Amino acid sequence: MIQDIAPWRFGNEFLSAVPSDDDNVLDVTSEGLLLRKNGLRVPTVREWRAMNAGAGLVYAFRLMRREESERGDAPMTERACAEGREARFFLALRQGDDASAAPSLWQRTPPSELRAQAAPLPLAAATAQHLAHWYATHRFCGRCGGPVRPSSKERALECPACGEVIYPVIAPCILAAVTNGDKLLLTRYARPGATRLVLVAGFVEIGETAEQAAAREVMEETGLRIRNLRYAGSQPWGFSGTMAVGFFAELDGPEDIRLDASELAEARWVKRADIPPCPDDSSLTMNMISRFARGEV
What CATH number was assigned to the domain covering residues 171-293? Predict the structure, then answer.
């Protein structure tokens, strides 16, 4: 899955760091993440400063090799990861979406289109998108309306006028793999362009547990009741700013589906042998579908 990046290790602890020329820049706009065309790597601070003006840099995270002696393909940088040492990443802070066209030899790629690339690029791209959206949509204090600034003590924004502290927004959501003997409930979203068969999913509401959210979402979208929920795993999904929590569950009652057409274009029971191959293994959804298809559940 996207968070499985061995032999790298993701270091998300906060550092009050000043970027050096050889550190890396995550420059995300509505058009995508800035990447070198050949090699799909992000620019170094030196390269980025040579082609950008007017944007600041704030520390994001670092990547470390698990074993210093490891070697291998490292798409994120030309040197740091491949040489087995720490690579630090800084996020470009822009006022709105003021990016100019990508310079020659560079391109902007939507982070979601990088899901099938080699680790750790998908996780770095998703996390960069998550952070960039948070910074861009929290430029002013929700209490007094004054401009906020990055904290020097933690990953947060602080208001110098009233002292309000704002932390990154992470929305919890659930995934429910509902089984009925040798069949799995698969759905397709009603939104335009949705073609993949996926699991029932939805956000956890105020005052409910993840298990209660799973039962509610399945009932609301398909009219089915479930029982015997078993934890399947969790996953950060920065593309949508969420933390997904997955459950396998059994059908509890009649199998007739009452579709919520405002949310889903279809929902159907699919036999284990008829489940189509998953397009990639980056998401917890695809991982859970594959586990059922292989007979592991």
Answer: 3.90.79.10
